[in-house]
């Protein structure tokens, strides 16, 4: 998230509009979306095209889809009806009843009570607010009316269920939070005939910060004693400043707050002990942990070593974009000792609760100036520990400390140790953001190759820097570099003498005879070397394959590729063309080897490079033949596959007959292809 790295992207057609938030179905690991109010789409992560995803048109407008870890997906319609996704998919055009005519839904939430999903939503009509509690699997529905609060009205809602009781929290326009308790009832005929019950509410919290009133926008529940409120504080003569605040509802105290100078979207989400909010143009994630509430913690008066002010147990590194490793002194002194208070931790410093003779802060201090031997010894002890939830973050923290030392002292570079850590640990770029930059400075090509193959979140700028470095390094230098050759050694043919037999191969329909009627341009003699021998050495091919495997977003990578020097761009295109021809020699278009590039990766990079460098390629004389050969080869393949499409029906019929034929019977059959 810190690198803005999209791992998947899907788009609806022009003119279509996504009309409710997309959710993930925990049971099937599928995404569920609704566009144009009634059209349901379901797809998986590997699906590339949303147009080809499962589609179902419903009979009524959808308000929201809720997904529960053990309860499946629930679909809430604008008319108040609720269906489980499974029931809905059995008959998408089934009639959907309207339960709330003339009422507009303002909020909804889904929860699990035992084995039963419960859906709660609020509606508004003529400044009156209503609460509906539904159990879809039991066809149970209860309606309540909220007690009015003078001229104030609810701005947002949130809820949780405990001991068969729904606790509904309402943030009102008078800058107060009210609590409403709703018992989950058992259905009886008498209750179904009752008139709607009026719910009374109690004041839970007044949002007052140092005499100023916090104008709340959104709130979420953290646990039974803590809530988070996103809002703004007015300042005389200035624009109100937005801030995120954490409150202790048990003791009516403000635990901590943080100003958000870049502004927010007004939305705050909380999931699995993480806050999600839009800060400026960035999606920010802040990890937190709620400990048992106590009066001492609420007023900041914990005894002994835990006497910190309110801000000390909240680490806002994510918002402030601080370095992963804060000052070593604060790491050692604070070290998240306040076990009895609520502590918020950013995902860059989740290093609490480490066991062993050295705390994280002490280990970082020791690595600051230790010899290579001491560094290696301490890190081997760390990596030998049994896996814990925080171990990966701790190792990432240590790697960042080492890269910081490398930047301060270029002579210090524990190459073997860093390579071992990357090879044996599932790290990511965001856990150690300076590692690849240091490796580029040190020209550690093997480490860069390992990072490209293993890190899922490398920024496009770093991917481009690696590509440029790999293309610029000389073949003679690479012969002395230890590089993993598994991705290239099975198919790269470097020596021309080994390639004499390959000139007769028909590459998925491509041959000299087929191409003669397509282009009048005579094929140059050098074409044979372009298409038949690898334009780069084995080591460089393996490095370039690592780049091809790296995930990227075209929008972010394209501007960098435009800066690639012309000669390097031509060399890279020659290598991609070589891979393309190699793939086409195989019936299944798959290259042998471990982590070898796929045909899709080759094609995507080829198109991307041509988009970025097409003008340069057209102007360069040395690229003319390459572009001509590439054009002819692609056109020949298009013609070949179009011919295959013409006989597709006959081939399927042949396949069907093969299944029907008895295996022990010999026969000769003639199929007439029309």
Keywords:
674 residues; 4-stranded antiparallel sheet; Thrombin, subunit H; activator; Nol11_C; 21 helices; alpha+beta
Q: What does this protein structure show overall?
A:
Residues 362-672 form the Nucleolar protein 11 C-terminal domain. It is found in: Nucleus, Nucleolus. One of its GO terms (cellular component) is nucleolus. The chain is of the alpha+beta class. Among the domains are: 207-289, Beta Barrel (Thrombin, subunit H), CATH 2.40.10; 358-442. 33% of the residues lie in helices and 26% in strands. The strands form 7 sheets. Strands 8-9-10-11-15 form a 5-stranded mixed sheet, with no helix packed on it. Strand 8 (104-113) and strand 9 (116-125) form a beta hairpin. Helix 6 (360-369) packs parallel to helix 8 and helix 18 (566-585) runs parallel beside helix 20 (621-646). It starts with 17 loop residues before the first strand and ends in a 14-residue tail after the last helix.
Short description:
The protein has 674 residues and is α+β, with helices and mostly antiparallel strands.
* Uncertain stretches: 301-315, 320-357, 495-531
Structural class: alpha+beta
How far apart the termini lie comes to 56 Å
Q: Number of DSSP helices?
A: 21
Query: How would you describe the shape?
Result: globular
Number of strands: 26
The major pleated sheet works out as: 5 strands, mixed
Instruction: Tell me roughly what share of residues is in helical segments.
Output: 25-40%
Strand content: 25-35%
Organism: Loxia curvirostra
Domain Nucleolar protein 11 C-terminal: 362-672
GO molecular function: RNA binding
Domain Nucleolar protein 11 N-terminal: 1-289
């Amino acid at each position: 998230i810190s690198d803005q790295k999209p791992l998947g992207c899907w788009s609806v057609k022009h003119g279509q509009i996504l009309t409710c938030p997309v959710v993930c179905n925990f049971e099937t690991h599928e995404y569920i979306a609704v566009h144009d109010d009634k059209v349901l789409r379901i797809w998986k992560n590997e699906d590339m095209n949303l147009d080809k995803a499962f589609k179902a048109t419903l009979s009524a407008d959808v308000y929201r889809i809720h997904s529960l870890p053990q309860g499946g997906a629930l679909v809430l319609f604008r008319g108040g009806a609720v269906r489980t996704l499974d029931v809905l998919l059995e008959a998408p055009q089934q009639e959907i009843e309207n339960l709330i005519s003339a009422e507009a839904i303002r909020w909804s939430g889904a929860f699990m009570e035992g084995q039963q999903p419960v859906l709660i939503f609020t509606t508004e009509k003529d400044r009156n607010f209503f609460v509906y509690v539904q159990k879809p699997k039991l066809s149970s529905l209860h309606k309540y009316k909220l007690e009015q609060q003078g001229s104030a009205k609810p701005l947002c809602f949130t809820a949780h269920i405990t001991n068969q009781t729904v606790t509904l929290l309402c943030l009102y326009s008078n800058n107060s939070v009210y609590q409403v308790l709703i018992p989950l009832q058992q259905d009886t005929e008498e209750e179904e005939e009752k008139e709607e019950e009026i719910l009374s509410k109690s004041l839970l919290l007044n949002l007052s910060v140092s005499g100023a009133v916090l104008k709340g926008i959104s709130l979420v529940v953290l646990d039974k004693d803590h809530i988070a409120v996103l809002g703004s504080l007015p300042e005389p003569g200035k624009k109100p400043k937005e801030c995120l605040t954490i409150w202790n509802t048990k003791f009516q105290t403000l635990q901590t707050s943080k100003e958000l100078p870049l502004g927010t979207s007004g939305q705050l989400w909380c999931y699995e002990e993480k806050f999600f909010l839009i800060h400026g143009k960035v999606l920010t994630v802040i990890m937190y942990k709620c400990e048992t509430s106590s009066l001492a913690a609420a007023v900041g008066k914990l005894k002994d070593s835990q006497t910190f002010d309110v801000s000390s147990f909240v680490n806002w590194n994510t918002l402030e974009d601080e370095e992963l490793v804060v000052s070593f002194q604060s790491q050692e002194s604070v070290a998240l000792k306040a076990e009895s208070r609520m502590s918020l931790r950013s995902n860059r410093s989740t290093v609490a609760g480490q066991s062993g003779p050295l705390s994280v802060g002490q280990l970082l201090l020791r690595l600051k100036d230790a010899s290579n031997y001491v560094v290696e010894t301490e890190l081997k002890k760390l990596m030998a520990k049994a896996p814990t939830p925080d171990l990966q973050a701790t190792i990432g923290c240590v790697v960042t400390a080492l890269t910081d030392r490398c930047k301060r002292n270029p002579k210090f570079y524990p190459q073997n140790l860093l390579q071992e850590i990357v090879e044996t640990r599932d790290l990511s770029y965001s856990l150690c953001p300076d590692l690849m930059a240091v490796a580029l400075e040190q020209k550690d090509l093997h480490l860069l190759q390992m990072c490209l193959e293993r890190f899922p979140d490398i920024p496009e700028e770093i991917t481009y820097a690696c590509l440029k470095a790999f293309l610029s390094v000389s073949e003679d230098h690479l012969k002395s570099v230890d590089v993993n050759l598994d991705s290239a050694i099975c198919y790269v043919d470097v020596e021309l003498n080994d390639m004499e037999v390959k000139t007769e191969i028909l590459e998925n329909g491509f041959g000299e005879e087929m191409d003669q009627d397509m282009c009048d341009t005579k094929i140059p003699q050098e074409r044979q070397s372009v298409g038949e021998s690898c334009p780069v050495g084995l080591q460089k091919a393996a490095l370039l394959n690592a780049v091809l495997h790296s995930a990227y977003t075209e929008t972010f990578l394209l501007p960098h590729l435009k800066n690639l020097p012309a000669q390097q761009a031509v060399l890279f295109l020659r290598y991609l063309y070589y891979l393309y021809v190699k793939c086409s020699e195989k019936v299944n278009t798959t290259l042998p080897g471990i982590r070898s590039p796929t045909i899709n990766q080759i094609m995507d990079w080829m198109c991307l490079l041509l988009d970025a460098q097409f003008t340069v390629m057209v102007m360069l004389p040395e690229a003319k033949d390459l572009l001509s050969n590439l054009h002819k080869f692609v056109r020949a393949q298009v013609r070949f596959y179009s011919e295959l499409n013409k006989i597709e029906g006959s081939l399927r019929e042949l396949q069907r007959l093969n299944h029907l034929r008895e295996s022990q019977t010999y026969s000769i059959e003639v199929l007439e292809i029309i």
